[in-house]
Amino acid sequence: MIEIVQPFNHQREDRVVFTVILIVLFFAAVLMSWLYPWQDSVDNGPPKVLLHTLTTLGNAADEMLMLSELERDIPSLDELRQQGVSPFDGGELVTSNKSNWAQHAECFLGFVDADGGDQFQLRLMFSGQSAAPAYEMSWRRIGVRTDSGVANTVSACEGGTNEGWKVVQNLNTSNHNNHAH
Questions:
Q1: Which H, E and C letters describe the chain, residue by residue?
Q2: Which of 7, 91, 105, 127 allows an S-S link to 132, with CB 3.0 to 4.6 Å?
Q3: Is the N-terminal amide bond of 87 cis, ω within 30° of 0?
Q4: How confident is the model at residue 169 (pLDDT cuts 50, 70, 90)?
Q5: What is the pTM of this model?
């Protein structure tokens, strides 16, 4: 005996499939908004125009730590300039960023005139405490730079004046994560 099957009705089944798809999309949207809330601003780190200068500053800080192990003291700004340690020597070879540096104790403060007219301050602070990191790099965007660089250096290098400073994490971390083996 042969059973006869009714032909496919394109109206009822299409509505059911369409409704199921809409319900799945609705729940996906609700779960996405619940699990990943909207973020107004994301801090992606320092501006690209500062990356080269910050990298050379980090390399210089590592070199200064090695020199301090030999000499038992952090080199002075004048010694770094005489040795041609970038970025303390005043110019950048790869970028057109121009920087001027000042020192207060174990803190170095740089004024950077970047491409496009933006001005930034960079701060390299060394820590004598063994439990803390050996140095900390930070940056901030500044308005018009004044000529009282020494007073600014002292106030920017004193403890507790972290207003507007953004600490720089290891710049190579993202590169290591992208090239994991």
A1: CCCCCCCCCCCHHHHHHHHHHHHHHHHHHHHHHHHCCCCCCCCCCCCHHHHHHHHHHHHHHHHHHHHHHHHCCCCCHHHHHHHCCCCCCCECCCCCCEEEEEEECCEEEEEEECHHHCEEEEEEEECCCCCCCCEEEEEEEECCCCCCHHHHHHHHHCCCCCCCCEECCCCCHHHHHHCCC
A2: 127
A3: yes
A4: confident
A5: 0.63
Both tokens assigned to 17: 């499939």
Query: What pLDDT band is residue 43 in, cutting at 50, 70 and 90?
Result: low
Query: CB-based contacts of 125: which residues, under 8 Å, 6+ apart?
Result: 106, 107, 108, 135, 136, 138, 157
80's tokens: 């770094």
